[in-house]
Amino acid sequence: MRRKMIAGNWKMNNNQAEASNFISSLETWLSSDQTGKKAVSAVSSGEIEIVLAPSFTSIGSAVAAKSTNLIQISAQNVHHKQSGAYTGEVSLPMLEDAGCKYVIIGHSERRHVFGEDFDLLEKKLIATLESRVLPIFCVGELLEERTSGNMKKVLSSQLDSAWNSLTSDVIGEMVVIAYEPVWAIGTGQTASDSDAEYACDFIRTLAYDKFGIAASDSLRILYGGSVKPENSASLLSQSNIDGLLIGGASLEVEQFERIITSAL
Ligand code: 13P
């Protein structure tokens, strides 16, 4: 059984105090609320994983605010080199040092706003897999790519360029893929359950074709794009959706708790 991941991507939100208050409130809910306690046993038994991705400057406060290991911390980006003259960048050893378990790579905002291309994203993915940080690798099509019937072509090329040199055991055990259709991000226009499932099923088929049954069976695939407490349960009930990558709704602790609840 694949462990479900409920991951909040805070993007450029939540300063140090806000990050630390969020973590404390969430941990209080986990330890004192009836449903929160159910979440704790699901985390402890390996059924679900709760992840939050603060901005670089809030990672330290988020880590420091944790009094348990129930919440994992992710970064939102990384540079592929270990160290050196790369002004403004943050390395994998730095993320490890700061307490990150995961890093988001290839988010659509990195691809489309900051121009990160296939070649750079492949370097980031490979460097991450050589570190102790695990990648959450994002793919997804633009609206015009979907309407012109090119969704599958886009997903195949984003994945092929990134996982070309990887092996089956790495794909199955270390990589998390997030399917985030760009038209659904921050728009309130969630993909329908069947559209999200169709794309995630397609991604799993690509993994099967390239890496075989064991890897494709254990590969975790998340959906992201306007996830809310109102639509999270039905998205999570789809057989190829193993979790959610949540933007806006992860900024409100109560909404994030309701999304966790929907995964239990
Ligand atoms: P929204 O949930 O705000 O649409 O953002 C999704 C996202 O980009 C998560 O990485």
Fold and architecture overview:
This protein has a single domain (4-262), classed as Aldolase class I (TIM Barrel). β2 (48-53), α3 and β3 form a beta-alpha-beta unit. The model has no long low-confidence stretch (mean pLDDT 97). α1 (16-32) runs parallel beside α3 (56-65), α6 packs across α8 and α12 (229-236) runs parallel beside α13 (253-262). The chain is α/β, with parallel strands linked by helices and 264 residues long. The chain has helices at 16-32, 34-44, 56-65, 92-98, 108-112, 118-129, 143-147, 151-163, 168-174, 193-211, 213-218, 229-236, 253-262; strands at residues 4-9, 48-53, 71-75, 102-105, 134-139, 176-179, 220-224, 243-246. The radius of gyration is 17 Å and the shape is globular.
Concise account of the structure shown:
The protein is of the alpha/beta class.
> What is the molecular shape?
globular
Helix content: 40-55%
CATH class: Alpha Beta
Spell out the CATH superfamily. Aldolase class I
Q: How many domains comprise the coordinates?
A: 1
Indicate the CATH architecture: Alpha-Beta Barrel
Largest sheet: 8 strands, parallel, barrel
> Distance between termini?
14 Å
**Low-confidence runs (pLDDT<50, min 5 residues)?**
none
Average pLDDT level: 97
Question: How much of the residues is beta strand, in percent?
Answer: 15-25%
Keywords:
globular; single chain; TIM Barrel; binds 1,3-dihydroxyacetonephosphate; 13 helices; 264 residues; alpha/beta; eight-stranded parallel β-barrel
